[in-house]
Amino acid sequence: MNLTTEFTRIFGVKYPIVQAGMAGSTTPELVATVSNSGGLGTIGAGYFTAEKLEDEITAVQELTDLPFAVNLFVPGGQLYIPENVEKMQAWLKPYRRALDLEEPVVNIDEQQKFNDAIDIIIEKGVPVVSFTFGIPDAEVIEKLKARNIKVIGTATSVEEAIANEQAGMDVVVAQGSEAGGHRGAFTESDNGQTPMIGTMSLVPQVVDHVNIPVIASGGIMDGRGLTASMALGAQGVQLGTAFLTTDESGASNLYKNAIENSIETDTVVTKVFSGKPARGIKNAFIEEMNEYNDEIPDYPIQNQLTNPIRKKAAKEGKEEWTHLWSGQSPRLARAIAAATLVENIIKESSDLIK
């Protein structure tokens, strides 16, 4: 098995390893270290303002001249239902009171932020853009490709992967249900559920139905995951949780400790923090919110309503009231330098395929 793949050739990287664009947890140091170690580092820009994005790109470009990516959230068609928002504000009031917080003002400006981000990416000469939560308009993809910027899509089913290929994506990430945090799902079944296919099942089925390179994602933490994924036909792997516990990660010590002290049965998929399904370590906030009988506001509305609570709780060391996104393999998490993690993955994989 050769670790030089179609993905590494197209993207100009040494190893078939992508660091996931974990919004809120990436740092320029993490992104640049992964790229300098031979992988593809990714800026998690999902929540960034235009100014923040520009600063992060500049910081990464000062630390590496190798390829890196920016990950963006594709704007959705969320509904603002005042009654739902008012009920949720009332439910969250005890948390705000305990943390001495004001009630936040909801601001739905996803589309404008997305458009600004695309312009900045082009202006700054970012080589790769990856997308989560859907596929951008054909005009956006054409605009990026006209500047020779590579585009990566995300899929949680064969149907979503085919849609990504038809839209012109250079690569598609096949993201299994084991993945931590928000997944890239953008379709729902008749009962309103997003696809929940495991990585081992999803990857070979996607590989059989698209012609573009497939990157496996979801629960992959080491060289065994890389080797298994490539045996299933993937051209590389994307890791998120594995990089969260590295030295360069932007995750707090509270967050890192929670992952390192968790086991595979501790994570659940929940909409209570953001309005979109995300996998994280179960805690009191999730359990208490499960008692909420009304409709949870759509993403990004719910995300904005709970964000100040989560931030302040994390700052004060209250892990029971903040999100702790994690994939299903926390026992495999390692508190090491990001460069060492990449090195270990390659060595472990090479030892397996000798």
UniProtKB/TrEMBL annotation:
Pfam families: NMO
InterPro entries the record matches: Aldolase_TIM, NMO
Cofactor: FMN
GO molecular function terms noted in the UniProt entry: monooxygenase activity
Reactions catalysed: 3 propionate 3-nitronate + 3 O2 + H2O = 3 3-oxopropanoate + 2 nitrate + nitrite + H2O2 + 3 H(+)
Keywords in alphabetical order: Detoxification, Flavoprotein, FMN, Monooxygenase, Oxidoreductase
Function, as annotated: Nitronate monooxygenase that uses molecular oxygen to catalyze the oxidative denitrification of alkyl nitronates. Acts on propionate 3-nitronate (P3N), the presumed physiological substrate. Probably functions in the detoxification of P3N, a metabolic poison produced by plants and fungi as a defense mechanism.
Protein family according to the UniProt entry: Belongs to the nitronate monooxygenase family. NMO class I subfamily.
Record protein name field: Probable nitronate monooxygenase
Source organism per UniProt: Staphylococcus hsinchuensis
Classification lineage: Bacteria, Bacillati, Bacillota, Bacilli, Bacillales
